[in-house]
Request: fold
Amino acid sequence: MMSAQDNINIIIQIQKVDILKIFLPAFVSFFIGIFAVKPILKLMQKFNLQKKKNVKYTIDGRPATYAAKIDNDEGKTLYRMGGLVALVGVLGSLVVFRALPFFFTADTIGKINFLSRSQTYVPIVALLGGAFIGLIDDLIVCGRLKKLSYYIGDGLSLKVRLGVAFVIALFSAWWMTTKLDMSSVYVPFIGTLSVGWAIFSAIVVAAIVVTYAGSVIDGVDGLSGGVFSIIYTTVGIIALMERRFDIAALCFAIVGGLLAFLWFNIPPAIFMLSDVGSMPLTIVLAIVSILTDSVAVLPIISAPLVWSIGSVVLQLLSKKFRGGKKIFIASPLHLHLQVKGWPKHMVSMRYWILTALFCSLGLVIFVAGGYFK
Reply:
């Protein structure tokens, strides 16, 4: 818990060089992402890395009748792996600020670097690991690496992807408990609870795997880019209030990269985020929420991810235990809304609005719940 004097100290500290460290990576990430679009697009065109024309099967192997109708992009060229734009922006920003101290001796330059053992090692490793597996999945879907495809819906199977998320979660839990000596969780209106390394590790694993499952939100122009941008801005604000400036800088660098992607993802979209973007972004989101003591409000802040995967789970359970009867016309929920007649831009913008509202609610609960006293 933090006192009033601590809050004053936060303001004083933010007024110094930290303001550059927090927000400058976002601008650098954005512009690196923008300038990276042209070579990335040429690469995609060369290897024909396009989105498949329509969805043929649902996750349980049945024909995706409604999804195929609304997700049919005949006549439109939409490339997969648009998440590379955001990733190049983030990693480019990291390299720039890591390298600057080697060329300039000013103390301010050295402090802008946001790579640190105590705050950003784990999320950056997870970002790279998730992006690599997501890249493999996207290449299979695009017709490359077909020998690795044994999944009816193309790409790596759900079990494989969840398995990778589980391995990353185990590594993250090990690092946090052994290297960072973390074993407590903050719960709003209750306080900080010391739960021990075993329960803490279980919370880490559950948070990462479940949050990754919410990556099914991708698929509508502007939807995932806008939602993730708002969520990461909120988590960045929490990190800023906690004086975890390296994490805040990383979050805002991710926002900058996402905005570069979103610039080309709004209708008519050129790219879709796909697994190379959604997998690392969801996994890193869970890790950052744990490192900033905000995992208890993560389900609220990431509400669109929660109701997206929730709608899929409910649909599968309903079809299995109710003789094939469905709750939604199609799932995830954003597909159901499109079948009901909502145009894609309406789905995206209303998701943005609801994301902003839930993020604000989560932020209020986090603060009012007693973290800052």
